[in-house]
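Please, is this right?
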Amino acid sequence: MDRLQQMQTFVAVVEHGSFAAAADALDASRPAVSRHVAELERRLGVRLLHRTTRRLSLTGEGEVFYARCKALLDEMDEAEAEATARSGQAVGQLRINAPVTFGILHLAPLWAAFSAAHPQVTLDVTLADRVVDLVEEGYDLAVRIARLPSSTLISRRLSSTRLRLCASPQYLARAGTPVHPSDLAQHAVWAYSHFAGGDQWPFEGPEGLVSARIRPLGRSNNGDTCVAAALQHQGIVLQPGFLVGPHLAAGRLVEVLPAWRSVELGIYAVYPTRKHVSPKVRLLIDHLVEAFRTPPWPE
């Protein structure tokens, strides 16, 4: 009897809660399902399931074996999906979500090349700084900028960026230059509303980890607005290198507290599942990985 079929049958019985339900799911007879599981237990020499007239439950050995079988079968499904995706043709609508500023600055220039290479794919790009539910809202893929991606999603790391503390030379000439993160409490600050730390900005430097309390002069849910305030000499901002890098390179902004490093963020392509990844999603991920192999912003 086929070992793989025995494992598939056993997993179906566990997941569907009964031999009858597993038989329906597998389009097999109930006696055949019972026989496969019994033969599996006989071959292994252990009991995998407690059987009563009302319910089934896993034995200790059954719990361990189920977890290993499930992982193995999932790997097989993923391998088949990848092979199919790489040989298949990319067609249809591809819904993408990305943060506003990053989407405008660094993703928008990439769409034309992808469309030219895959003319049968229609791109539908939505920019929003809130975290969308990919499954509920029907997105195929999202670009997320975070310390770690959601554990409920599959992710591919594209690049990284560090939050940079900076201000205009004119502001620093007028208000003075901080020499320690604690000095930020006495400075005008424009804060990003979605920052996970709230009004506590973390830094690592000569004294180890330090959390600096800020008292924002203004807030915005958009990084461009914060940077515009800094360029107009209104205060200090903590923004990612992909946004402030060109201003630092041109001298319009200068880095504050360069001996103290703030948070490094990963830039990820995230999608709901490894199973049956469509060719259009797989090809877009490959396109993004290649585009960000060398980040286009100065860090």
